[in-house]
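WARN no homologs supplied; continuing
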Amino acid sequence: MKASGSEGEEELELKEEYDFSGGIRGRFYRPKMKIEHYSFGKIIVDGKTYTSDVIIYPDRVDSSWWRKEGHTLHIEDLHDVLNANPAVVVVGTGFFGIMKVPKETIAYLESKGSTIKKCVNR
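OK structure emitted
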């Protein structure tokens, strides 16, 4: 389900329905980031171009993210992501598909209640 923002321009996605005290039902909407383009060394998210690795959250992009070791995703690389308590973590493996996600990282994410999906970005 989608709803318009207050300006009528922003596309919002229904995240969850909550039952607040007193039996009043409310809805929580979140902004939805849109990946407009991807090519080797470049990604455009919501009209902004990035030329470094990024983490895309539902409401923002972190372009200052840096991994511990080149093309391997370690648990230490995901502390900020895990603070967001995601149900699903999607890992782009890069244009050539060389980003590796060790079994230990997958097991750790699953132990925290997250599912991991790998995505080749071609």
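The CA atoms of residues 82 and 112 lie 8 Å apart.
OK
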